[in-house]
Write a structure and sequence with these properties.
44% of the residues lie in helices and 0% in strands. The longest helix has 22 residues. By secondary structure, it is mainly α. The chain has two helices and no strands.
Length: 66
């Protein structure tokens, strides 16, 4: 059975509430630009990066590879 690891990205924006209160449209546009220019590019860059996850019997630690 092939296993694949998926990473989930969560971002915290410093001052998000203040920024939204001051300029909601501008803040959303800036966040969209950041995602398009940086985050989506990094996802595309590593999209085909695969690493084999060994069978559980070969794990060195109970939490997997780490």
């Amino acid at each position: 059975m092939e296993r694949r690891l998926t990473a989930i990205l969560a971002a915290d924006v410093v001052g998000y509430s203040r920024l939204m209160g001051a300029d909601e449209t501008g803040t959303l546009a800036a966040l969209k630009t950041l995602r398009t220019d940086f985050i989506d590019g990094k996802i595309a860059e590593h999209w085909d990066t695969l690493e084999t996850i060994p069978p559980r019997a070969d794990w060195k630690n109970p939490n997997g590879k780490f």
